[in-house]
Amino acid sequence: MKFSPPDCEHCKARKDNLFHFCHLEELYELDSRKSCMKYKRGQIIFQEGSNPMGLYCINQGKIKLYKYASDGKEQIIRIVKPGDFLGYSSLLSNTVYPASAAALEECVVCMVPKDTVHQLFRNNERFSEGLINLLSSSLDDSYRKIADMAYKPVRGRLAEALLLLQSTFRDENNPDGIVAVTREDLASLVGTVKETAIRILKEFKDSHIIETDKTKIIIKKPQSLVQICALYD
């Protein structure tokens, strides 16, 4: 079946990102300049150390942003969903990508060339303000995650990750936010080993906080996870 790229004017993901600030003629310009790709699970969108080509906008699917530590272990920094942007920090600072991005499932991703983004940044005040706010929020999240990795126990980090993933996976087709990630990716997101993640998930399951079905995780008592998140000792 032939792949039909989404058009910006009617894109459902646009209502959840900064492109909803664009005027109609700006949307036409985005449509004429962007490129759209379909990725299978595991395929790389961009790699750490490469030069930014443009702004990536997620139309369908989930993508992980990750780095490799000095010991070769993968550390997931963030999981993005439809409507989210990727690559904006490198685009604004004109530096190489500090991390890599890969598809967690089948995805559709649009890439707007950097000169088009720079033009939009200069000419659309609401878009530029929103992009700066997005960058600031991303930095704040990074600082918080560094503090959590240093002081919060693995059990609390895993609880927090499950709540974040529930929010990420929740959409009109998945109103309960059932999480579908491998145990390896979950451990990588939390900053632990797979065996520890599995053990803590079993504790949550035995306490009836979650249910599992193969790789799927169904959160039954989110408030219990919130309480676990608040524990630092």
Briefly note the structural class of the backbone. alpha+beta
Give the proportion of residues in helices: 40-55%
Measured by DSSP, the beta-strand proportion falls in 15-25%
Cα end-to-end separation: 54 Å
Helix/strand order, N-terminal first: HEEEEEEHEEHHHEHHEEH
Envelope shape: globular
Q: Describe the strand arrangement of the main beta sheet, using strand numbers.
A: 1-8-3-6
Uncertain stretches of 5 or more adjacent residues: none
Compute the number of helices: 8
Mean pLDDT: 89
Number of strands: 11
- What about the largest sheet? 4 strands, antiparallel
> Rg, please?
19 Å
Description:
The chain is an alpha+beta fold. Strands 1-8-3-6 form a 4-stranded antiparallel β-sheet. A 4-stranded antiparallel β-sheet has the order 2-7-4-5. The N and C termini lie far apart (54 Å).
